[in-house]
Amino acid sequence: MNRDDFLKTERLYHFTNRCSALKILTSGKLKFGELNRMNDINESYRQIYAKDGVEPDDVYKELNTYRQISLTHDGRFLGFAIPSMWRHYAEKGYGICLVFDKEKLLQNLPKGCSKGYVHYKINYSAEILVNADNIQEYFKNNEKALFFSKTIDWEYEQEFRIITQNNDTLDYKDSLIAVIMYFADDIKNGDSVLDSEMAHSVERIVPNIPVLEFSYWSGNTQLQKGANQWYPPLKQYDFNI
């Protein structure tokens, strides 16, 4: 993919550590994670209230059959240019941001997956109130509230989520369009991260995928490959509050 195609493509981003990135690139698969291991404590520890005749333990069992993949989309901020995402999910900047063509990635979803943008709310409750006899039907009818809503303090993540019950991995096939790097620990100060061993490892695994360098300084961001700018310098926080 070249720069012009990159700019025209609607993208989704996945931040991860170096070890996981190499596994993903080698296998060609993204792994679905367990909901009870998410960073958001609201998703890890959920209070369950059920009508008479419905056992809370059965509700927990059904909840634990769901798994998810978290991605970031371009929104208020460019998805790849959110410093907190690099810090929290990509080894404080030493990890990797994988870039996917949204349309192609979603075409590869296994049957039965749900997908969508996460909505962030001021008035949010993580409680699960099962007021139906059929637990499975309740979850299906309330997916949006249960799996695609979070408190507003997570809004900076700009999350796009994929939910499944029946799959451990997602074969992303030809939807990977770029790999972005921020820092590397084996280069001299001022040198390009593209000269690092990690960048060379990525290039060996996916030789036809561009490896791009992200830089951030004094509120300015840019994305480039050598002297070729894929995104020109721009103000990351150039918006009206």
Word description of this protein:
This protein has 241 residues and is of the alpha+beta class. The protein has a domain at 3-34 and 67-117 and 154-235. Helix content is 26%, strand content 32%. The chain contains nine helices and 16 strands. The protein has helices at residues 3-8, 18-27, 41-44, 56-63, 83-89, 102-107, 135-141, 143-147, 197-205; strands at 11-16, 29-31, 33-34, 48-50, 67-73, 96-101, 114-117, 119-121, 128-130, 149-151, 159-164, 169-171, 176-181, 211-217, 220-225, 228-235. The strands form four sheets. Strands 1, 3, 5, 6, 7, 11, 13, 14, 15 and 16 form a ten-stranded mixed sheet that branches. Strands 2-12 form a two-stranded antiparallel ribbon. A two-stranded parallel ribbon has the order 4-9. Strand 13 (176-181), helix 9 (197-205) and strand 14 (211-217) form a beta-alpha-beta unit. Helix 2 (18-27) runs parallel beside helix 9. The longest helix has 10 residues, at 18-27. It is elongated, with a radius of gyration of 20 Å. The model is unreliable at 236-241 (pLDDT under 50).
